[in-house]
């Protein structure tokens, strides 16, 4: 009987510790998401990425810390000057996504973020990289949509790639604009239901709104 009670006590303590750790993880993530929203410079985004990466090192069973670290680094890449400097940020982002996939498997959001970092690498030197990388970026976004055809972030990023391709080849914007409109509908649908995960990605609606307005 005593052994039975001791076992229950140990199990209960373990559950309390797990709940405390989960609470600490969520609060740490929310703090960094707030820092992300306030970031402006490449240095700001690098600091946020470093913090997310540290959270990820302590929570290897969670893919979101590395996802948001990669997102911060991708933002830093788009905001910095110089091809080498941009490439360094985008490469770090891609490596983090690869690590997250290795630890937790692929999903639509991770693949879309990998595509976003690849798109940044292409945009850093489009004249020499466009022909080589365009297909890779498009197929990456296509893969993200194959995992979840209603992922609005994958859809708007694909729309932006379609827009760039149309401009390069001098073709019409109909396909890109159709995808942008679809992504906006998906963002509105996403906002209409409550996600059980408070840390789930929600960014990108502003991109969809801007592109849809341009299409009009």
Q: What does this molecule look like?
A:
This protein is 82% helix and 0% strand. With 216 residues, it is mostly helical. Helix 3 runs antiparallel to helix 4. The radius of gyration is 20 Å and the shape is globular. 36% of the residues are buried. Residues 1-20 have low confidence and may be disordered.
Write a short abstract of this structure:
The chain is an all-alpha fold and 216 residues long.
SSE-based structural type: mainly alpha
The multimeric state of the shown protein is: single chain
Span between termini: 74 Å
The biggest beta sheet reads: none
Along the chain, the helix and strand elements come as HHHHHHHHH
Shape: globular
Q: Count of DSSP helices?
A: 9
As residue ranges, the low-confidence spans are: 1-20
State Rg: 20 Å
Roughly how much helix do the residues carry, as a percent range? over 70%
| Proportion of residues in β-strands | under 5%
* Overall residue-averaged pLDDT value: 90
Give the secondary structure arrangement, pairings included.
Layout lengths: L1 H37 L3 H17 L5 H16 L3 H22 L3 H17 L1 H22 L4 H18 L4 H18 L13 H11 L1
Helix pairs in contact: 1-2, 2-3, 3-4, 3-5, 4-5, 5-6, 5-7, 6-7, 7-8, 7-9, 8-9
Fill in the keyword field for this structure.
single chain, 216 residues, mainly alpha, 9 helices, 0% strand, disordered N terminus
């Amino acid at each position: 009987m005593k052994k039975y009670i001791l076992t229950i006590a140990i199990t209960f303590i373990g559950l309390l510790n797990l709940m405390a750790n989960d609470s600490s993880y969520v609060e740490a993530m929310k703090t960094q998401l707030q820092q992300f929203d306030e970031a402006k410079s490449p240095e700001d985004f690098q600091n946020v990425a470093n913090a997310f990466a540290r959270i990820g090192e302590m929570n290897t069973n969670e893919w979101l810390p590395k996802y948001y670290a990669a997102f911060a680094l991708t933002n830093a890449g788009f905001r910095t000057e110089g091809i080498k400097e941009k490439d360094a940020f985008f490469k770090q982002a891609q490596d983090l996504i690869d690590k997250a996939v290795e630890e937790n498997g692929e999903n639509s959001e991770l693949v879309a973020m990998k595509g976003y970092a690849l798109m940044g690498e292409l945009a850093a030197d489009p004249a020499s990289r466009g022909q080589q990388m365009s297909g890779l970026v498009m197929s990456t976004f296509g893969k993200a949509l194959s995992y979840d055809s209603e992922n609005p972030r994958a859809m708007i990023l694909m729309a932006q790639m379609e827009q760039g391709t149309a401009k390069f080849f001098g073709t019409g914007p109909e396909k890109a604009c159709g995808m942008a409109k679809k992504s906006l509908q998906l963002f509105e649908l996403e906002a209409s239901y409550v996600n059980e995960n408070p840390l789930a990605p929600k960014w990108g609606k502003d991109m969809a709104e801007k592109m849809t307005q341009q299409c009009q």
